[in-house]
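Protein Record: Sequence and Backbone Structure Tokens
======================================================
Scope: a single protein chain, as residues and as a discrete description of its fold.
Tokens: labelled as protein backbone structure tokens, with as many entries as the chain has residues.
Position: the record begins directly beneath this header, with no further notes in between.
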Amino acid sequence: MGHKILRRTAMSSALLVASLAAGLAACGGGGGNPLASTPYDASGQIAFSAAMGGKARTDPSKTLEITAKGGSQITDVTATDAAGRHLRGELAADGSRWRSTSALAAGAHYTVRVSTEDELGRPGRHTTTFDTAAAKQLRVTFGPDSGTYGVGQPVTAALSSPVTDAGDRATVEQNLHVEASPEAVQGAWYWVDSKTLHYRPREYWPPREQIAVSSTLDGVKVRDGLYGGPAKSVALRIGDRVEAVTNAAAHVMTFRRNGQLVRTIPVTTGKPGFSTRNGIKVVLGQESLVRMDSNTVGIAAGSSDAYDLPVRWATRVTWSGEYVHAAPWSVSAQGRANVSHGCTGMSMENAHWFFDQVRRGDIVRVVGSLGPTMTPFDNGFGDWNLSWAAWMKGSAIGARAETVLTAKRIQAAPRLRPEL
């Protein structure tokens, strides 16, 4: 940022009076005031600590230092990169030296403007440019792709290199931005692992919310030898609040849109030994026809639990193969007993209707099952099964993260493992 000092020149009362009188006599010309002079070229009165200009590129890990010489002093320095970011710095009290106090960006083009005064108080100016050397880049890939999603859809950020140090994580997190409108919401990032972050609000996204996800990490020093790289922004729109709640003990699903009950559906869920997971899940995708083979979940062919079937209207809620789907073979049990291998089965008509009503990011919750609770991160989006207090513990910046105004794929999806 700019830093200014004022040269103070001692003078006698007589000289001061004389100077004022001269100034009054020459009110049209201003020749007696050195500050009114056109700034002279100060290039010969300052020296830089790093290679500036030419083909040489400055090491971004180094400190930029500017020194006055020849009896002059520095009064102001402004250093700005092409993205408009200012390099912070500190000016010595006597104007003899200015040094940067924040890190240079890697692979950046800087413009430096230096103001000086000579021994007579005349102003000097010098402007120069320099480029910093490129460094290993930490790239960020945001997910999901731009589009419309349900109220449970988390935002994801995949990093190209691991980040483990708490301070380095804070640097990354502070430069990943999620902005929501028109309704303000409280949200935060959670470090799933050293290369993956998820962002969710404290409560589900408000319907019809607009979400902009962006990064200011490009060129920012994360640690020695690693600087932020560019990232493609994404824009999400949230649709209606759709919640499907399956009561496994009562064998029924209630489907609500924006709080209004739309349909009650008889279902069957996982039988003993294959109980459906409890908890909040998020729709991951849909397939109008999928082949489900029990071999993929470790059920040997020829056993009493083996299956190999084409299944219609399948809505996926876990990567391991839990679906809401049509199960015409179990219609007699739907609404009365749990006979599936973990999926939520319903009639062909109801499954087709459900398939047409939901989108990625919609909420599918299971209660009353004998199965375990959906895990948060390793089998889809179970993010909502963490309390807000637990979620905040995953942030590198803690309470400062509690605002929305605040690569590559995260990982390849596991092999299809249907749980019919």
Notes: The chain is about 10% helix and 35% strand. The longest helix spans residues 13-25. The mean pLDDT is 86.
